Amino acid sequence: MSSIAFIGLGNMGAPMALNLLKAGHAVTVFDLVPAAVKTLTDAGARAAASADAAVAGVEVVITMLPASRHVEGLYLEHDLLGKIATGTLVIDCSTIAPDAARKVAAAAEARGIPMIDAPVSGGTGGAAAGTLTFIVGGPEQALARARPVLENMGKNIFHAGAAGAGQVAKICNNMLLGILMAGTSEALALGVANDLDPKVLSDIIAKSSGRNWATELYNPWPGVMEHAPASKGYAGGFGVDLMLKDLGLAAEAALDSRASIPLGELARNLYALHSKGGSGRLDFSSIVNLYADDASR
């Protein structure tokens, strides 16, 4: 078992840290929200007064932060790397811009600190169940060290390539997810507008050529799937503003590489419109309400 510092105990970070505790690791936690820290200390974690204190003397440092500016701010501007002992493994599970991941990884390498970017897929449900997918960028040797720790939080681990590659793959995946959810919502709304039962239509699509993750596991129409956020007022899950952030990262990556993403840009505009309408904190499947005003009633 390892001694681990876990920084960032939000909707994803907290259940991930809990799974590390359940696996028997010694976990020290830090977050700016005291209630989040208490949840972990109640489960057996040790609280640190600061991020600097959290990383003192540990074998592994894991961060799960909201955006690129937070990751760069912590590791570079605050210089957390300067407080981490040489040889300590660093795993950043945040979803950030690939260039930001490469910048921090290069600074870590210069200090003799092995680092991987390991953004996740699977949502809050996967984080709680320990079934996340880790999409890793960085040296193979660092991934080999990280694998036993990652396996306590997820069931799928992919090595996408060098530093930043994990972020690129995650952005591609989430761009497609946003497109699929918007398209599925549009199709269901069209069917309901023409007097079809949304569950019957969803069953048809799930067994036909339009089948996708949304129709099979995360249906956006209320009442179709009991455990989906759509049937719980779109509470929890993966927020609209988080999807909007990831679609923005895809747009930035497309500009940098001169790639064309017309559907990705359209999806970004749809989620931006939805967020501005006051739905930013709802699950991203609530995009269906752009097409059907009565979907959530």
From TrEMBL:
Q: Mind listing the UniProt keywords for this protein, alphabetically? A: Branched-chain amino acid catabolism, NAD, Oxidoreductase
* Top-level taxon of the source organism: Bacteria
Please state the Enzyme Commission number of this protein.
1.1.1.31
Q: Which residues form the 3-hydroxyisobutyrate dehydrogenase-like NAD-binding domain?
A: 164-291
Occurrences of domain 6-phosphogluconate dehydrogenase NADP-binding (ranges):
3-161
Name the top EC class: oxidoreductase
Question: What is the reaction catalyzed?
Answer: 3-hydroxy-2-methylpropanoate + NAD(+) = 2-methyl-3-oxopropanoate + NADH + H(+)
Q: Which GO terms describe its biological process?
A: L-valine catabolic process
Any idea which residues are catalytic in this one? Answer: 170
User: By its UniProt entry, which PROSITE patterns does this protein fall under?
Assistant: 3_HYDROXYISOBUT_DH
> A GO molecular function for this record?
NADP binding
* Annotated InterPro entries: 3-OH-isobutyrate_DH-rel_CS (IPR002204), 6-PGluconate_DH-like_C_sf (IPR008927), 6PGD_dom2 (IPR013328), 6PGDH_NADP-bd (IPR006115), HIBADH (IPR011548), HIBADH-like_NADP-bd (IPR029154), HIBADH-related (IPR015815), NAD(P)-bd_dom_sf (IPR036291)
Q: Which residues cross the membrane?
A: none
SUPFAM superfamilies to which the protein is assigned, alphabetical: 6-phosphogluconate dehydrogenase C-terminal domain-like (SSF48179), NAD(P)-binding Rossmann-fold domains (SSF51735)
> In what pathway does it function?
Amino-acid degradation; L-valine degradation
Family affiliation: Belongs to the HIBADH-related family.
Q: What is this protein called?
A: 3-hydroxyisobutyrate dehydrogenase
Species of origin reads: Bordetella genomosp. 5
